[in-house]
Amino acid sequence: MIDFNLVPLLPELFLAMAAMGLLIVGVAHGNSVTPVICWACAAALVVASFLLFGMSWEKQIVLNGMFVFDNFAGFMKLLIILGLITTLALSVKYLEQERISRFEYPVLIVLAGIGMMMMVSASNLLALYMGLELQSLSLYVLAAFNRNSLRSAEAGIKYFVLGALSSGMLLFGISLIYGFTGSIDFGVIRGALEGLEAIPFGVTFGLVFILAGLAFKISAVPFHMWTPDVYQGAPTCVTALFAIVPKVAAIGLLMRLLYEPFLPVHDQWMQIIYFVSLGSMVLGAFAAIAQANIKRLLAYSSIGNMGYALIGIVVGTPEGAGAVVLYILIYMVMTAGVFAIVLGMRRDGIAAEDISDLSGLSKTNPIQAYAMAIFMFSMSGIPPLAGFFGKLFIFQAAVSAEFYVLATLGIMTSVVAAYYYLKIIKVMFFDESIEAFDKDIPFARRVVLFVAVAFLLVFVIRPEAIVESAQNAAAVLFT
Amino acid sequence: MIVQAFAFYLFAGILTVSALMVITARNPVHSVLFLVLAFFNAAGLFVMLGAEFIALILVIVYVGAVAVLFLFVVMMLDINFSDMRKGAMQYVPIGMVIGAVLLTELVMLYGTWQFVPGREQNIADPVAAFAGQNNTEALGQLIYTNYIFAFQTAGLILFVAMIGAIVLTHRTRAGVRKQAVSDQQARNPADVLEIQKITPKTGV
Hints:
The complex is a heterodimer. By secondary structure, chain A is an all-alpha fold. In chain A, 74% of the residues lie in helices and 2% in strands. Chain A contains 19 helices and four strands. Chain B is mainly α. Chain B has helices at residues 2-24, 28-49, 52-76, 81-85, 92-111, 119-122, 135-143, 148-169, 181-186, 189-192.
């Protein structure tokens, strides 16, 4: 009965040990070793990914039904680890430039990563909540990491208060589901819901509260208010983390939750996700137009992108789920590339954050300008870049399941969104050039930039390889 | 039965009133004291449910540590709470509306509440399985076996909270003179003391 098989948890356990060990190293040597600890954390993440590859990806549920490891969890965990390594690589130099180079930073990122990996492996509402809290708590601290900046402190406190509120709603929803079914185990909940003829209020209300709590975490409309302020206030390397990784984990969690325990009440949650997706797309497209700060713009862009990803979830078919995984993967690569450039926007050691600061980048630094142009074209979904395929598969899934309104609106809002992506290109290529940015771009950032550009360009040559693994990963949720 | 009902309404009534006083009292010290009262009554309710372990933890942790810590903060820091409360009144109407909506929802919910058929079989660890054991034993058996994953994760969360508190508040100030115990221990009387023989009536 008691099940202590820890093998599926190996990557998490290893990362927890590594985080604690590196924290001790940091305490012993002080802040001067921060870059070393950053790279050591990145190395630990690489080892964790090898551990993932070495494990059996067959579905297994361990620890009294708390933890599940399957193809989907493995794939999402790889994405999370990749995102974390990228963020660490982008951060090292920036932390030094902003004089916030403290050894706790990489340790907190790894701990947040453990939380995210637990989220995608949760097979029980309690495990889900624990993973979510581990992730959120680390992210609250990271948002306020630059404690000498008023904006960073504001970002931290805003994120914390709203995050606590959303956790409260999530817990209330969980308590309703538990009260109704008598269980917090995904399998048992599904079994209980399958036999129902009419859906009682209790389930619907519980589902609404759980979804409201999770919508906060993926910053979907109408729970998006914190996103622009937190993105703007947090140190830029933390903003990069927010934009790249937690979304992967939260979408993974949402997919497992909706497709495993709550699939029998598909028609109930479908309407909610439908409108959340619609609202996010529309707001993401229109509110971004007026932004002058590039971090705020990226915040609205991420809201819009979550809207597109949710379309795939609404559809509720394996095809749609695979499209979501693929979309998230491509979104992650594009965002990482964009932030590699945004982090390099400094003049005389001062960070520049306005879109107008990019004026005439094509003359002062043509390589960056062309890379940014590729990211922007890809984000607005222009073929043959990878971003186009991400949207294509989502809309295809929506059309084949006869969600015509959602697909049409998605295409229309992505046309609107293309306006502000193209505006950045216009600023870079056609505006008067101003003073050049500082030249000292670290090697790690160049590598991220190069890999992101290469991925977006090369994707078109052999899309099947990645598309198939994404489809396979998502398909296990439906077996 | 009458006694039980009476005790329930007493605890619940005082709990509600003191919770209300926590947010309406003008003096912050009074607020904290009402909070302590609220915790005590909540503990009473837990005892009535047969959850004496949680009741005692509530008293020890919340009253003993958290509320006292609050009291310290309120008394030690010179925070002007009336300034913080300024403008709070303008949010009362919207708060009332949201509260009313939530209340209606709850009434709707519990008015039509029904359980899933066969709910008893779904409960993972029913109380009946622990008959004859006290709370602490039963919790210990579950926490370290079936719920070890959640328990350890909670430990990790507290670890993050600790790191976070240090990251956000710990500052190294320049010019602070710290006690260097090893230096003190290493001092030799011969290095720092000079013993002089003083003959009377001559001075040093």
